[in-house]
Design goal:
- By secondary structure, this protein is an alpha+beta fold.
- The protein contains 12 helices and 20 strands.
- The protein is globular and about 70 Å long.
């Protein structure tokens, strides 16, 4: 620890955070795509000039990007040759510290007074990067090339000038290319804002003082995390989670999680998980590690986020499993779905040691639905990407939240009014998936129901979701949450249910056809028979259950009316 004045230290800590927050805001306000501007599927951060380690990340950034952007920045550092002020590297290669191909990273060297001080980086979810199906969520892909355009670290901007040749290669390999330039310029503009704000911070306090603060903040975060871990009883804790299928082979994938608490460290071992799979539910190593990081951060939310936060977390590389994907394994489901199963396995293991800190499993799916087609009224193609909320798990102090965001992000569903303005669709329903929370002393929160009807043209629907066969797990006697369901209603030929239930691709949609989705509820916490009778009565009064349903689910009569 340094002798830096504590007031100065906290001001610099908040200043670094504010730099990232302003990058986040600039990015989402300037972005063209609703998935970024409205759903907030993006993140910005500051990274160490030599190691690529995380210094600060915006409050509004997705948690799953906490670790992956650190790894992708490291990949750029390893490959960068003579970086210059104004350079921006673009990369989305999953095997170089990435997630799926739609998460595109921009990484920029930040110079102060002529010297490289740090790297600025951001990630934005592009609605399309090419591949077999609009939106990139190919449920049946068997190699990464089928999922879209894969970019190693290359300079898209050279000393502030956009490289038109590289841009033309990118735009020639993705759908709705004319609309992507808005997102590209927004992503670059966010990094420019970061340069200005970080320069102002350094001008005020000096590079040496800020450097000292960064080092101390890292040491303190590690110290705080170790202190939290020390309170967990020493021991070996085992948990598990299940992925419905990989989209190609109709068999479940299992995650076996062993967490060993020793002194002030947690050791994570996923040996025994399912082997690499044929379909796109493999997870690259960066996403796997980041999933463990975000799971622990869920448990200890008060520990600040920087590289020190992760030091006491020791993760054994799960080589030989589907959680350590190597080229050319497809990975479109890794960040949005498999990452949440990994987090669930961590929760499932540690709830045994910390029942007052943990909770039943949340909905655990981002509900990725892409609808791509051509709008004849506007004479242009489109790709609509929908993410949806679900129920949180019950916890020792109360019921789970309904329609909460996914485990791995703060992303929210794009307002349906915005989607109806952008795309030729009508949302005929958007409601709570009542009764979908697992029963327990504290029940799980509810998912949502929504129905989309195509109004014009023709389209193709693809989805990569999960929890279609097994609901989010209840704990300590609580029941599992409700299932994710997908139903296509044909205007002229009946209904279609995807064979893999939560995963399918390239489903033809005509005018009048409807896509109906119900998202999972969270798991229940504690024995259902221990639920307070007044709470059961309140649920009945709100229409969540009929009296008969409530009495069947909770095994007791509600309070007298």
């Amino acid at each position: 620890m340094t002798q830096l004045d504590p007031v100065t230290l906290v001001v610099i800590q908040n200043g670094l955070q504010q730099v990232c927050n302003e990058m986040d805001l600039a990015f989402c306000r300037a972005a063209f795509s609703p998935v970024i501007s409205e759903a907030l599927d993006r993140s910005d951060g500051i990274y160490h000039r030599d190691t690529g380690e995380l210094i600060a990340q915006g409050d509004l950034g997705l948690p799953v990007f906490v670790g992956t952007m650190q790894f992708s920045t490291q990949a750029v550092i390893e490959r960068a040759r003579n970086p210059q002020p104004g350079d921006i590297y673009i990369v989305n290669d999953p095997y170089l510290g990435g997630t799926h191909l739609m998460d595109v990273k921009f990484v920029k060297p930040f110079f102060y007074q002529g010297k490289l001080f740090s790297w600025l980086a951001n990630t934005g979810h592009w609605p399309d990067t090419g591949g077999m199906v609009p939106g990139g969520f190919s449920a049946n892909a068997t190699e990464v090339e089928q999922e879209g355009l894969r970019l190693p670290p290359v300079k898209l901007y050279k000393q502030g000038v956009l490289d038109e040749e590289i841009l033309s290669i990118i735009l020639s390999n993705i759908r709705i290319a004319d609309q992507r330039i808005g997102d590209i310029k927004a992503q670059a503009a966010a990094l420019s804002i970061g340069e200005k704000r970080l320069t102002a911070l350094l001008d005020r306090y000096g590079a040496d003082t800020v450097e000292a603060a960064i080092a101390e903040l890292k040491a303190r975060a590690a110290q705080q995390m170790r202190a939290r871990i020390s309170a967990i009883p020493d021991g070996v804790y085992r948990g598990s989670a299940v992925v419905d299928s990989d989209g190609v082979v109709d068999e479940p994938l299992h995650i076996a999680m062993t967490v060993t608490k020793q002194d002030d460290e947690l050791h994570f071992d996923m040996t025994g998980s399912s082997p690499p799979c044929k379909g796109p539910m493999n997870s690259v190593l960066a996403t796997t590690k980041s999933s463990v990081y975000l799971a622990v951060k869920h448990i200890f939310p008060d520990v600040p986020i920087n590289a020190g936060t992760f030091e006491p977390l020791k993760i054994k590389d799960p080589d030989g499993t589907f959680l350590y994907a190597k080229y050319p394994r497809p990975v479109s489901g890794c960040a949005a779905e498999v990452s949440q199963r990994i987090a669930e396995a961590v929760f499932n293991a540690l709830v045994q040691a910390m029942p007052d800190k943990l909770f039943a499993a949340p909905a655990g799916t981002s509900g990725n639905l892409a609808l791509g087609g051509f709008d004849p009224a506007r004479n242009r193609a489109y790709v609509m990407y929908v993410i949806s909320g679900g129920g949180y798990g019950g916890w020792h102090g109360g019921d789970g939240i309904s329609n909460g965001c996914s485990t791995i992000g703060i992303s929210k569903t794009t307002p349906i009014e915005v989607m109806e303005q952008y795309y030729p669709v009508l949302f005929e329903e958007y409601s709570l998936h009542e009764g979908s929370g697992g029963a327990g002393k504290y029940r799980g929160g509810f998912g949502v129901n929504y129905t989309i009807r195509l109004r014009r043209g023709e389209a193709r629907a693809s989805m990569v979701m999960d929890h279609g066969r097994t609901g989010p797990r209840g704990v300590l006697g609580g029941e599992d949450g409700g299932l994710n369901t997908v139903l296509i209603e044909r205007d002229d030929s009946g209904q279609y249910i995807p064979p893999h239930l939560s995963k399918d691709q390239d489903i033809a949609i005509k005018v009048g056809d409807r896509v109906r989705v119900s998202t999972p509820g969270g798991g229940g916490y504690g024995e259902p028979a221990e639920r307070d009778a007044a709470a059961i009565e309140r649920d009945i009064a709100r229409g969540y259950y009929t009296r008969e349903q409530a009495e069947a689910r909770f095994g007791r009569r509600a309070a007298a009316e």
